[in-house]
Structure formats: C-alpha cells, structure tokens
C-alpha cells in the first residue's frame, strides 16, 4: 500500500486535536521515520512522506519572530488585534498575540495560553527571556 493510501486511512483531520486544553498546550505530530515535527498534527510527514506519525506535545514557551496589527473584524474577535509567527521547538505557529508592549522588538520570548471557552482558543503573551 502506498503512503498516500495509508495517509487517507489515517485519523481524520477533525479528530486530530491541535490544542490540548487539559494540559494547556498545542499538539502537533512527529514522524517516527525522520523525526520531523509538524503543527497542526498531520496524517503524514511533509518531509519524508512517511505515515508513521504520532502526536507530539509542543513546548509552551517560544519566540515571536514577526507580528502585525489587524484591523479587519472576524466573528468573535474585535479589531485591532495582533497576529504573529512564533517558533516552538522548531515548529512555526501562526497565532494571536496579546499584551505585547507598543515598543516590543523581535525576536522576543512568548508564552502560550489556552482557553477552551475563548475565541481564539490559544494565543501568546510576552514571556521571560
């Protein structure tokens, strides 16, 4: 059976939860063949195309490398809000940034926050160096 067919038979995307609310962290996938780490969790490895992947918890501390202020409203989120690119253990996560000082520079450490009853369900706040 080809890797593509194995990936099609894998757990559906909607059942691979990218946020673990009980533990307060993001969950990606790690390839058991090449150790590539992905987020959100995937059915197959984007690097080696293997399908032997397992859930992998990402760290809660990362580094913000870029951010932008958004003025376009989306349901449940009032503008302006910040979106940023955060690196967690080598994985790039695009998410909301809260409480960033006006004079913030990048790169800067950030900390993950999650809340099941929130929109969005996860975001990053400034962290300690």
UniProtKB/TrEMBL annotation:
Q: What are the ChsH2 C-terminal OB-fold domain coordinates in residue numbering?
A: 57-113
- Indicate the segments forming the ChsH2 rubredoxin-like zinc ribbon domain, all copies: 26-50
So which domain of life are we looking at?
Bacteria
* SUPFAM superfamilies according to UniProt: Nucleic acid-binding proteins
Which InterPro entries does the UniProt record give? ChsH2_C, ChsH2_Znr, NA-bd_OB-fold, Thioester_dehydratase-like
According to UniProt, the name of this protein is DUF35 domain-containing protein
Organism of origin is Pseudonocardia eucalypti
